[in-house]
Amino acid sequence: MTSATLFGLCGAALIGLGLFGLLTDPHPLRKILGFNLLGGGVFLVFGVVARRGAAAGFYGDPVPQALVITGIVVAFSATALAVALVLRLYQVSGDLSLTPQSSEQPHSDGAEG
Amino acid sequence: MIADAASSLSGTSARGYLLVLAIVVPVGGVLIAAALGRRNAERTAFAAIAVGLVVGIAILSDVSTTSRPLAYVLGNWAAPLGITLRADGISAVMLVTTALIIAATAFYARTNFATPRDVIEARAPYVFWVLLLAVWGALNTVFLGSDLFNLYVALELLTFAAVPLVSLSGRADAIAAALRYLLFALAGSVFYLLGVGLLYGAYGTLDIVLLHQRVQPEPAVWLAVALMTVGLLAKTALFPLHFWLPPAHAGAPPAASAILSALVVKGSFFLIIRIWFDVLPGPRSLAAAQVLGVMGAAAILAGSIVAFRQVRLKLLIAYSTVAQIGYLFLLFPLVVGFENSPWSATAWTGGWVQLVSHAFAKAAMFMAAGLIAQTLGHDRIGDLGGIARMLPLTVLAFAISGISLMGVPPSGGFVAKWLMLTASVEEGQWWWAVAVVVGGLIAGAYVIRVMTRMLSPPSEPLTPAVSINRWQEAVPLSLAVGAMLLGFLPLRPLELLQIGLPHLLGGVSP
Q: Which residues in B lie closer than 8 A to residue A16 (C-beta atoms)?
């Protein structure tokens, strides 16, 4: 097993863990953390793609590395926006339920889909 | 197909600069509006909208007269490393539709999002005008992008611009709905990104034209397309991933609801079409297309039934959006696998006419519901009696949009449903016709239910909560009339929609 394969499996595990957290944990901050884990796993997969696509003499294909940098910036901005919304929700309502009114789906805190 | 590849590989078309303008004008507007602030945000928005509308119409006329897609190679760096902007028939149609609906929304929102006279700068109007332009710029990039990662960035820009519009009122339910929308959308875009990574790993390029030539049927491609499709389905709010949409609409200001239902969810649908029909060469998976069709049919039925049972008008219209988006996904089983039949072109036209007419009709409906809610102070359907006397133009706009949603002639909705019914019956897939007809019947039920309440006399005399602005009423009426005018399209495949995609649809139109 090459190191690239090992990192790929690690990325897959992170994606699984992050997705599980995003879907099942009702607390918004933990959903955001789950999204970050998910993103981290995807970026690791990009790194594996870069390693495997390396031409002779290079350590890694630079294009997926550039994509990862853009992806990190996007994930960072997304996290910032999400955390800002969570903070404001707490300030306005005092509690962090994603369904403040009881009329909609009662079980949807735990399931996103 | 070879000619199209050559035209975009060999470089920029003569009028290619229009594509750059289509993106730069809204994005430049965002920067200028954000920098100038105060009242100038609104003025900048209107100026940008005027210029952008002209650019969109110019692109549409160029594509339709030359019958070839427009291309622009950024920096003259050709693929596989360079990025191309490309406008084919469906891009051009979507550019003009977006420009028109954004312009109408801007006129509608002038009343609600005007900076008050005694205030130098107010938060909500400033944010609204900047984000309106940002949504528009993101949509234009989605329609024109020809590189999968460029499209990812455009998709994220669209989400980040649409989410704050949902939470603009600052109430707890609106913020919670916006947070939910953001989490759904982020999960979707991460799946899309993973698919992009897999495709790059397999083929070494992300340019759509090059991928079309290189892609082979293999597990990496199936997985990548499945991931990207699922991610985009979450953003398009297809049943059963639609749970973020109704709360988002319930809390959003009416102008934001109009854009969200009419345009933002269509952006991710546009990307699904791009991936399925532009990146993947034929033959495409029949089973996967059937799965999408089943989800679409389920969306039509579930969305329509839940819409009928709603107490609040805005939520009824939101669930109606969930149902109407299901019609768009019937395009997949009707086109995939039938590329050599003349009926695929019919189904293709039907799907796109449905998209455009739904955009006009739904925007008009949300604007009308917003006017009713602000005049009455509530939007409970049971207590809408007497509104027809107070807001006749608004109720007329609602009625005409409802006619388009039901699929009654003359309206764009009728043309779309007729074309889809014809295609499904002629291809032997009559079960989709059942879904279309039943969906139309239930849509008729909920539209007529609302209209009956609106036209009935009030239980006690009504006084408007705010003064009625007839110019603001005229905007949804003009959008609804636009949806009706689409009903004058001929009941045949439209060649404009097939420019740039000759490899998709073979055969002669019937």
A: none
| Averaged pLDDT, B420-430 | 91
- The answer to whether A31 contacts chain B (CB < 8 Å) is yes
Nearest alpha carbon to residue B316 among B253, B264, B379: B379
Residue B423's pLDDT is: 92
Structure tokens at B455: 């036209």
Using CB atoms, which residue from B172, B194, B243 is nearest to A89? B172
- Is the minimum CB–CB distance between A88 and chain B shorter than 8 Å? yes
Nearest chain A residue to B202 by CA distance is A49
Instruction: State how far the Cα of A7 lies from the Cα of A50, in Å rounded to an integer.
Output: 12
Instruction: State the best of B183, B196, B322 to mutate against chain A, taking most chain A CBs within 10 Å.
Output: B183
Instruction: Spell out which residues of chain B touch residue A92, defining contact as CB-CB under 8 Å.
Output: 170-172, 175
Instruction: Report residue A105's pLDDT band, with 50, 70 and 90 as the boundaries.
Output: very low
B240 touches chain A (CB under 8 A): yes
CB A101 within 8 A of CB B315: no
* Upstream peptide bond of B116 is cis (omega within 30 degrees of 0): no
A89 to chain B, closest Cα gap in Å: 6
Phi and psi at A80, nearest 5°, equal -60, -45
Amino acid at A1: M
Does the CB of A19 have a partner CB in chain B at under 8 Å?
yes
Angle at which helices B412-426 and B470-485 cross, to 10°: 30
**Number of helices followed by number of strands (H, E) in chain B:** 21, 2
CA distances from B491 to B133, B415, B494 (A): 35, 6, 9
CB contact under 8 A, A38 and B190: yes
Contacts of B331 (CB under 8 A, 6+ apart): B273, B347, B348, B350, B351, B420
| Mutation for B interface: A98, A102, A105, A108, most B CBs within 10 A | A98
The answer to whether residues B147 and B84 touch, using CB atoms and an 8 Å cutoff, is: yes
Phi, psi (deg, nearest 5) at residue B34: -65, -35
A40-95 pLDDT, tens per residue? 999 999 999 999 888 777 888 889 999 999 999 999 999 999 999 999 999 998 87
Q: What pTM was computed for the model?
A: 0.92
Neighbours of B466 (CB within 10 A): 12
Name the minimum distance, in Å, from the CA of B506 to any CA of chain A.
36
Tens digit of each residue's pLDDT (9 = 90 or more) over B216-269: 889 999 999 999 999 999 999 998 999 999 999 998 999 999 999 999 999 999
Amino acid at B248: A
Structure confidence at residue A99 (pLDDT): 67
Q: Which residues contact A2 (CB under 8 A, 6 or more apart)?
A: none
Average predicted confidence (pLDDT) for chain B: 89
Q: Is B243 on the interface with A (CB under 8 A)?
A: yes
Where do runs of H (alpha helix) occur along chain A? 3-24, 28-52, 62-93
Residue type, B438: V
Beta carbons of B173 and A82 less than 8 Å apart: no
Q: Is the pLDDT of residue B143 over 90?
A: yes
Q: Span B305-323, mean pLDDT? A: 94
> Partners of B73 in the beta sheet?
B84
ipTM: 0.89
A57 interface with B at CB cutoff 8 Å: no
Distance from CA of B327 to the nearest CA of A (A): 20
Q: Cα separation of B348 and B352, whole Å? A: 6
